[in-house]
Design goal:
The chain is α/β, with parallel strands linked by helices. It has a single domain, classed as Alpha-Beta Barrel (TIM Barrel). It is built from 15 helices and 13 strands.
């Protein structure tokens, strides 16, 4: 008998937990980055976030009310291994142990992510993802988490959106750890992230567990029919969509010559063999498509971005194009064929300027329309035969949205960040009813 389709929501530890020094948790690169003047919009602090560490039972109750049968969360690496490797913080593991048990008691499948960008600062001080040793530290941490939770958790995600962490954190400097490395060093970071995935997947699979890799995908179109725009689109597609997918499904890197790279540095004998075939599923994070143009003078990159014509936008300014999700799923099938494992839409959502009305209601019709369109795109893709096995809306609660602080609200539940009061939005009720209609609950 096939497993039921997973209807869920997704979150990440650093964005919701707070309690940054509670129970022995050490600093992550995001704790350090958030202290930089100007790094976080309006100086917002992640110290409290959604206070999920203390209010997790309330949040699990919200998940139960929502009717989801799966919950994607992340484990904070510095809460489990404060120095990144070596001594294990049992109190930190206890937190996730309690969370998993509470989810299972409500019939909710836990889907943990091992790395959602919160590298322990101690590892960053030793070279971070620029060091091959960090990949081995990650595998050790994965083994520790799996040994504690693997008797109840069968499906794991190794990395979340490594292309975003690589580019925003190591090339553009707008995310932690805030570096602006040259192309060769950035691609070295990419390889060490891939190696970390491969090593962690080996640990998980040796224990009879599934290993997934979650990537951010954005279907790319050239702004015009010109050859230069087409070349720019190919370059961006190779970077954004293929850099972390081709190696695990084909055993080779995409063509990165547009970036002046003849090869990805740091690859040693056996690395690509380790990475190839190391996934039991691909997580698809989709928010919007990309229109790409040839670079302007002084760009420094082989592409620039254009606007998606005629599309409404979210509060983040991202174009709303539900059919882009369907196109993403189709492209993966077209590109990888029989090598493609099952797909899971592990993030999809939109930020809007939601507010609690005097009557206590949070009306968010734009988010409902967004979700309705994107769920429709997933179901249409399944109707075409695409093997999609889950949909996770981003996210349960309004949270700390990285460099944007608390300005972007993606949640199905409104959070007053001064009081931590949770108020389900209209979209919460809509998604609850949708899930019930699909599961017969």
């Amino acid at each position: 008998m096939s497993s039921p389709f997973l209807w869920g929501v997704a979150s990440s530890a650093f964005q919701i937990e707070g309690a940054l020094a509670e129970d022995g948790r050490a600093a992550s690169v995001w704790d350090t980055f958030a202290q930089r003047p100007g790094a976080i919009r309006d100086g917002h602090s992640p110290a409290a976030a959604c206070d999920h560490y203390r209010r997790w039972e309330e949040d699990v109750d919200l998940l139960d009310r929502l009717g989801v049968n799966a919950y994607r969360f992340s484990i904070a690496w510095p809460r489990v291994a404060p120095q990144g490797r070596g001594a294990v913080n049992r109190a930190g593991l206890d937190f996730y142990d309690r969370l998993v048990d509470a989810l299972l008691a409500r019939g909710i499948t836990p889907v943990p992510t091992l790395f959602h960008w919160d590298l322990p600062q101690a590892l960053e001080d030793g070279g971070g993802w620029g060091s091959r040793d960090t990949a081995y530290a990650f595998a050790e941490y994965a083994a520790v988490a799996a040994d504690r939770l693997g008797d109840r958790v069968g499906r794991w995600i190794t990395l979340n959106e490594p292309v975003v962490h690589m580019a925003y954190g190591h090339a553009f400097g707008v995310h932690a750890p805030g570096l602006t490395l040259d192309v060769s060093d950035v691609l070295g970071v990419a390889h060490h992230l891939l190696l970390a995935h491969g090593l962690a997947a080996r640990e998980l699979r040796s224990r009879g567990l599934e290993a997934l890799l979650t990537n951010n995908y954005s279907p790319v179109a050239p702004a015009t029919g010109s050859a230069t725009d087409a070349d720019a689109a190919d370059a961006y597609d190779a970077l954004h969509n293929r850099l972390f997918t081709d190696p695990v499904l084909t055993g080779a890197h995409p063509d990165l010559s547009a970036f002046g790279a003849k090869e990805v540095p740091g690859v040693r004998d056996g690395d690509m063999e380790l990475v190839l075939g190391s996934v039991d599923g691909i997580g698809v994070n989709y928010y919007n498509p990309s229109v790409v143009t040839a670079p302007g003078p002084g760009s420094g990159l082989p592409f620039d971005f254009g606007e998606v014509p005629g599309a409404p936008t979210t509060a983040f300014g991202w174009p709303v194009v539900p059919e882009g999700l369907g196109r993403t799923l189709d492209l993966l099938v077209e590109r990888y064929g029989d090598a493609l494992p099952p797909l899971y839409v592990t993030e999809n959502g939109a930020s809007y300027a939601d507010a609690v009305a005097p009557d206590g209601r949070v009306a968010d019709p734009e988010r409902i329309a967004y979700l309705e369109g994107h769920v429709g795109a997933v179901e249409a893709a399944r109707g075409r035969g695409v093997d999609v096995r889950g949909y996770f809306a981003w996210t349960l609660t309004d949270n700390f949205e990285w460099a944007e602080g608390y300005h972007q609200r993606f949640g199905l539940v409104h959070v007053d960040h001064a009081t931590q009061v949770r108020t389900p939005k209209d979209s919460f009720a809509w998604y609850r009813d949708l899930i019930a209609s699909r599961t017969g609950a």
